Amino acid sequence: MGHSDVYVLDGGMEAWEKAGFPLTDVKPAFEPVQFIVNLNQDMLVDIDDVKAAINDQRTVLIDSRAKERYLGRIEPLDRMPGHIPSAINHEWTEGFEAGRWKSREKQKSRFFGLDKDEKIIVYCGSGVTATPNVLALLESGFEQVKLYAGSYSDWVSYPENPVEKEEN
Description:
This protein is α/β, with parallel strands linked by helices. The chain has a domain at 40-155: 3-Layer(aba) Sandwich (Oxidized Rhodanese, domain 1). It contains six helices and seven strands, in the order H-E-H-E-H-E-E-E-H-E-H-E-H. The longest helix has 9 residues, at 131-139. The chain starts with 11 loop residues before the first helix and ends in a 13-residue tail after the last helix. The mean pLDDT is 94.
């Protein structure tokens, strides 16, 4: 969106409080300002990029959803179960341990076997839970990582798009 200083609160408010950091219920006063959205388009891909990636041996598609959804065993949200053809599954929750981010070394081991020179497109159901995988990949040294923000919900909204239901 254009913010230059963005952080992840590892462990959430519970970890913040346990660490003894200050909390307050006082609502701060801020002067209104106009925020100018400056999307970093270099981090995003669209449906046409994903279609091209399916047959591109230099691009890896990562589905971040639960394995049951990836395999097409269940689909609680979208009209059709399964995954985008050629995608591999790295469930986003695997990046956490006891509610905290796994170490950089453990993140790297999650993505063992992926080539850091390959392009990587990450998606989930609607673009939200793919984000932890994007961050973990970037932290692990991958540089060509992009988010398909429309994700699986966008993909299956086009009846002509193919879907796979078995593991690759």
